[in-house]
């Protein structure tokens, strides 16, 4: 097993030496490429992406002797190149309110991310309204209220089990009346009831479009980076349920190897707007490709 990132680094085993040993070189041959592929797959990059990355690294360099530092630099450059195409902050539009629909499975970090985003928008001088659209989970609504208090943002709720679309409509009405800059709508994450969830999300979109045909302006999919390759399946599923416009990757502060972000970028090309790096309100950072590549390669 590869040690967890970012403390571990991918390369200890590859070069078969301790990091402080004298510089050693290895020939970039099939054997080494295969080992590299294994490391990248173990780091959650997925087979297709790992193969593409190693092929690009070998291009024009096959048979050369390279030091660990050179291999690391090549890998970091390749990862950076892929990730630069998706590192984009969430686009902001002048429309009031700009509607941000937030989707994702339960436990992915939706509530926390909404709280963090609301706090960032507030700090930037924007007015925000939150709609607690996961009306089936009383605990989720309570949690969102706690985050709303922390961020200093009103959270609109509805009785347990009531129609989320009706809440979204009311929230849209209030946000418009208040002249709020942003309306963030939390949604249910019961992927096991796919048909219900699809209908629920479609209905929310339908009703808010009665108020603004361009809404939602952003549909954020929140993904837990520690779920590895599962994140790829979640993107596929949610793309069928909603018009996903961008991703927030959470829990990148823990033992997540983070390689799944490369697989996601390579496969879907969806922008990564932000990353979650902890449980506190300020623990949301813009996605920085170079920093990410450096942490991944160790
Ligand atoms: P939801 O069910 O999708 O709304 O998920 P929550 O926002 O309730 O988050 C689920 C758990 O993940 C909570 O314990 C959060 O504190 C935790 N969490 C969310 N984002 C992060 C993150 O970026 N880093 C860490 N370490 N934990 C997070």
Structural topology:
Blueprint: H1 12-15, E1 25-27, H2 30-42, H3 47-58, E2 65-67, H4 68-84, E3 98-103, H5 110-123, E4 128-131, H6 138-151, E5 155-156, H7 164-178, E6 182-186, H8 194-211, E7 218-224, H9 230-241, E8 246-250, H10 259-268, E9 272-276, E10 284-285, H11 289-297
Parallel strand pairs: 3-6, 3-7, 4-5, 4-6, 7-8, 8-9
Antiparallel strand pairs: 1-2, 9-10
The structure holds guanosine-5'-diphosphate (GDP).
Residues 104, 106-112, 140, 143, 189, 250-251, 253-254, 276-279, 283 line the site of guanosine-5'-diphosphate (GDP).
Keywords: Cell membrane, Cytoplasm, GTP-binding, Hydrolase, Membrane, Nucleotide-binding, Receptor
Membrane topology: Peripheral membrane protein
EC number: 3.6.5.4
Strand order of the largest sheet: 5-4-6-3-7-8-9-10
Tally of helical segments: 11
Order of helices and strands: HEHHEHEHEHEHEHEHEHEEH
Largest sheet: 8 strands, mixed
Mean pLDDT: 91
- Which ligands appear in the coordinates? guanosine-5'-diphosphate
Strand content: 5-15%
Offer a few descriptive terms.
single chain, 298 residues, alpha/beta, 46% helix, disordered N terminus, binds guanosine-5'-diphosphate
